[in-house]
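Our collaborator T.R. sent over the components below with a one-line note: 'Predict the complex.' Nothing else. No constraints on interfaces, no templates requested, no preferences about which chain binds where. So this is a plain run: every listed entity goes in together, and whatever single assembly comes back becomes the starting point for the next discussion.
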Amino acid sequence: MTELTKSTADAGTAEPAAAPAPAAASAEPAVARVTQWGEIRHRFVANKLAVFGLVLVLALFLTAIFAPLIAPQDPYHQDLTNTLQDPSGEHLLGTDALGRDQLSRIIYGSRIAVEVGLASIFLACAIGVVVGALAGYFGKATDSVLMRVADVFFAFPLIIGAIVIIMAMGRGVMPVIISLAVFSWPTVSRLLRSSILSVREADYVHAARALGASTSRIIIRHIIPNSIAAVMAYAAFSVGGAIVAEASLSFLGVGVSPEVPEWGNMLAGAKDFLGVKDFLWVYPSIAIVLTVLGFVFVGDGLRDALDPKLR
Amino acid sequence: MGSYVIRRLGQMVVVLFGATVVLFACLFVLPGDPVGSLGGDKARDPAVVAELRERYGLNDPLPVQYGNFVKNLAKGDLGEDYTQRRPVTEILAPKLTNTAKLAVAAIVIDIAIGLLAGMIAALFRYSFWDVLITLLTTMAVGFPSFVIGLVLLSTFSVKLAWFPVIADGSFQSMILPAFTLAILDAALVARLMRGTMLEVLKADYVKTAVAKGLPRRTVLFKHVMRNSIIPVVTYLGISFGSLLGGALITEAIFNWDGIGLALVLAIQQQNNPIIIGVVSFGVAVFVVLNLIVDLLYAVLDPRIRLA
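Returned assembly:
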C-alpha cells in the first residue's frame, strides 16, 4: 500500500499538464519513474467519463460524511400538520406522508448507501479473494470443492438469496450487508481464480519458487498483486449494484427498518402517491441513479485503465 | 461431449443439493413460529397449533424435514402451503405461467431493441446514431428496475392512462412491466452486440467474403450476424433464467400475479412451503439454463470443444 501511494504521488508531480506519459518517459533517461500505478492513474484521468464518475462518488462520500451539517432538518422529525407538502422555500424537496423533510432524508440516505455498498462489497471481496486464491493456487480437489461451494451461492438470484438470509437474521443494516456479501463473493473468487490460473505459470512465479519463496509468500507477494486488477474493477462497479440491491430490499419491505432515512424506503412510501405527489419518488430516484452511474463509470474507467488491452 | 454433459449434470445435482440445504437452514432457524402466526393477530388454540405443526411435519428434526422434502420433490410434490392448505405446485403453476409470459415478452423486446441498436451502432460506427446508442446504453446501467417501473407507471398509466394501473393479466397490462424488465438487458445486449460485431467485421473471413464478391446482404447475415450473435445468445439465456426465477421488484410494482409477487407475499406471511418452492425453482432454472447455454455455445461455434 505504501508503494501505491508513493508511486501515485510520483506520477502526480511527473505530469502536471497531463502530458502523455510515454513521451515524458522517453525524453529523459529516468524511465523507471513511470511506475505501473502512475500509468494506470494517467489512463484513468484521461477518461472523462471516469473522472465524472469519480466526482459523483466523491460528492456522495462528502454528503454521507457531512450529512448532519448539510441536512436542513432532522430526518426523523415528523410534523403531522405539514404532511405531503410540495417543494417550497421551507422544505426544498417537500415533505412525506409523515411530514418529514425529504431533502434531509435524501441526504441522510447517502449514509446507508455508502455504508452498505462499501461494507458488503469489501466483505464479498475479502471472502472471494481468499477462496479464489486457495482454489486457483492449489487446484485439484481444493479447487473442485471450493468452486462447487461458490456455485451454490452463485445460483441464487442476489435479491432472492438476500431475502432468505434476512428472514433468518431479521431486518437491519448488518443483515443487509452480510446477505449481499454472501451472494456476491462467488463472482470475486471466480475472477481471481481464473486470473491466478493464468499468472501461476508466469516466469516470475517460477523464479520466486526457485529462489525458495514459501507458498504463502508467492500467493501474497506475487500472485495476488498481479491478479487483483480484475477484482478492483469489479469491486468499484459492484458497489453501485450493491446499493441498488440494498434499495430494492428496502423497497420490498425487507431491508433496513422503515423509519430509517433510506432511498428504497422513501420510494416504497412514495409509491402510494404515484402521479399525485411525484416529487416524493423523483428526487430519491435521482440520488440513486447518480450514485449508481458514479460507481459504474469509475468501475469502467478502472477496468480500462488497469488493462489497456481490453477495448 | 457425453462425459462433459454427465459431469455437468453431476455438478448440477451438487449445487441444487447445496442450495436447498442453505435455504432450509435459513428458513427454519427463523425466530417466529410460521404456524402460530397463521391466524393473524388472534391467538390460536394450542391444540390446533399442535395439530398443524404435526400436519406440516414441523416437529420433526430439520434433517428429517429436509429428507422428506427431497423425497417429495423427486415425485414432483412441493408439499402444502400454510395459508390455503393447497398443494404448492397447484398454487404456483398459474403464477409461473404469468411470470413466463412476462419473461418471454421481455426477451422479445431485448432481442428486437438490443440487437437492432447494437447492429446500427456497429455498422455506422462513430455516426450520430452510434454515439446516441452508446450514450443511452451507458446511462441505462444506472437505472434500477424500480426507478424505471415508477417512471413508466406514473407516465403511461397514471398521467396518460394508456395502460391499466393494476395489472389484470391482459396483453395491455403486460407491456409496461415487460419494458421495465427489458430495458437494462436491451442496453447490455446492444453493447455486447456492438462490441462483438466490430470484432467480427474486422475478421479475415469477412474480408474474404467481401473480396470474393458476395452480396453485402449475404456477408452481413451469413457471416457477420451468425458469428456476432453467440455472446448475445449466452447472455439472453442466462438472463431468461433470472427472469423466470421471479422478477420481484417489477411484479411488486405492477402487481403482476407471478411467482415473484407470490414470493414477496409468502415472505410477509412466513409461508415457508411457497418460499422454498419459488426459490428452489429459481435456482434450478438458473443451473439448467447455464448448462443449456454452454451446450448451445458449442453448437453455434464448432471451434469450441467441451471437455
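Summary for T.R.: Chain B has a mean pLDDT of 85.
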